[in-house]
Amino acid sequence: MRRRDFIAGIGSAAAAWPLPAPAQSNRTRRVAWLGLGTADAPSSYVEALRTGLRELGWIDGRNLTLSLHWATGRHDMEAAVHELLATDPEVIVAQEFMIYALRSLKSPIPQVFGFSGDPVDGKLVQSFARPGGHLTGMSYLAIELVGKRIELLKEWVPQMRRIAILARPQHPGDHFERQASEAVIRKLGLEMSYFPYSSQWGIPVREFGELRQAFAVMKGEGCDGLVVFPDTSMFEVSGRIAQYALEAELPSVSGWSPFAKNGLLLTYGPNVHELYRSLGRYVDRILRGAKPGDLPVERPTKIELVINLKTAKALRLDPPPRTLLARADEVIE
What we know:
This protein has helices spanning 44-55, 74-85, 98-103, 143-156, 174-187, 209-220, 232-236, 238-247, 257-261, 272-287, 309-314, 322-327; strands at residues 4-5, 29-36, 64-71, 91-95, 111-115, 135-139, 162-167, 191-196, 225-228, 252-254, 266-270, 302-308, 330-332. By secondary structure, the protein is α/β, with parallel strands linked by helices.
């Protein structure tokens, strides 16, 4: 399988940072992680961050202490933040919108984020090039790839005529994704139906009634393809989305590989684990004295295509074109 690199506009500025010398310190530096999940469940994102730090000479347990703090919902988020601050970290790495829990406390501690939305639209930073303040990091959002996902789905299902878009309007950057989708849909001569979904992370879904109803309407409007805008809240219900898409006979595409692993037909987008490995560079620069507000926010540089042949078989689709299959980084069989 081939892996491709994608150089993303302004976000590539930080990729030109000079490589630092191996970390040297007479004292143990303190870094804290604030993530989604529980302490007893392994996190590939934490391991990716550890790898990125280790590559730059920062070894957890030797010259660095990485303390882990978790929240499973809004009910325990505040407790996790206060537990984290009690460790007096020099840098905080926050997963997704956990960064908002930190921002509400107005802490001056440098903070690095991995964020699925647009951090400018989400009012986390002033700009990608000059974040300002105490925050910087990486955004998973790659508007340039939104149209490509639709093109890939159309390549596999050429008879597709009307695409349903399932999205959370409150997700920062959603309107940019919608505009990009509308542009490519017009170019391909397709029609579109937009379905907003109000699910929020950490809030119990009311038996998925809203989601089920959305799929019933999709079917009634004659939609024959589905695009899911990826964010953490949508990923939480991605298994149910995949189930309903299968029942509605809708070939589906989204942006992160775990969506395909949970049953969507294909995904095309950033390698999120690689993104968290890259956050180690931000931590390294800040520990060496850089101000987070001076470090540009990056966009993804590692892009992957994942195809789920099990879902294709369940949908009774023809095998994907050879050209599409040859470009895949992973095939689920």
